[in-house]
Design goal:
By secondary structure, the protein is mainly beta. The protein is built from two helices and 15 strands. The chain is globular and about 45 Å long.
Length: 192
């Protein structure tokens, strides 16, 4: 009988610890692995990291933690980026290549991405107050997490250099968001 009470009591205690007195969830950004300069982390309300886009000096990759990358870009010695056979050029505030023409615009406290990424429409606006990815809007809460009413069970953190919104690391922040499909609409709906 005692064990039965604990089985019911412990989950309630854990659930109570996951929210503040005002009902807002406690959220924490995940740590970066050694050698990773910055990233974007998609989390669930249980603080579980379920998808990420990160970068190092030479690579931008997106995917599930402890799994294979679902997309990646490698920096070439001449400053271009490659993914498979596609070469992406960085010129000023633009990324260009076959079916790629993305413009990066700095805005007060953040940036905006518009254009095409492998034929998909790009529309992402991000600053210290919130974000808009296609039609999904996010408000930044006290923990620094970007929370959307459209996706109430998930939230997004900018970690490491990605959190430098006053001086976003170009082109890595854009490539991380795009490789993870944040702000893309391929005609089948917004992926993230």
């Amino acid at each position: 009988m005692r064990m039965s009470l604990w089985v019911h009591f412990v989950p309630l205690v854990l659930a109570a610890c996951a929210t503040t007195a005002s009902g807002e969830r406690t959220r924490a950004a995940p740590p970066l692995e050694p050698g990773v300069k910055g990233g974007i982390a998609w989390m669930r309300n249980d603080n579980h990291l379920y998808y990420q886009a990160v970068w190092t000096e030479r690579r931008v990759a997106a995917g599930w933690p402890n799994g294979s990358a679902t997309g990646s870009l490698d920096r070439t010695p001449d400053g271009k980026w490659e993914t498979g056979v596609t070469v992406i050029e960085v010129t000023g505030s633009r990324l260009t290549g076959p079916q790629i023409d993305v413009t990066f615009t700095r805005q007060e406290g953040g940036f905006r991405l518009t254009g095409l990424w492998f034929g998909a429409n790009v529309d992402l606006v991000l600053d210290a107050r919130g974000a808009r990815a296609q039609q999904s809007t996010y408000a930044r809460d006290g923990s620094g997490a970007y929370v959307s009413k459209d996706l109430p069970d998930r939230y997004v953190f900018l970690v490491g250099d990605a959190a430098r919104l006053e001086d976003p690391p170009w082109p890595e922040i854009a490539q991380a968001a795009l490789t993870a499909h944040w702000g893309l609409d391929s005609g089948m709906g917004n992926v993230r």
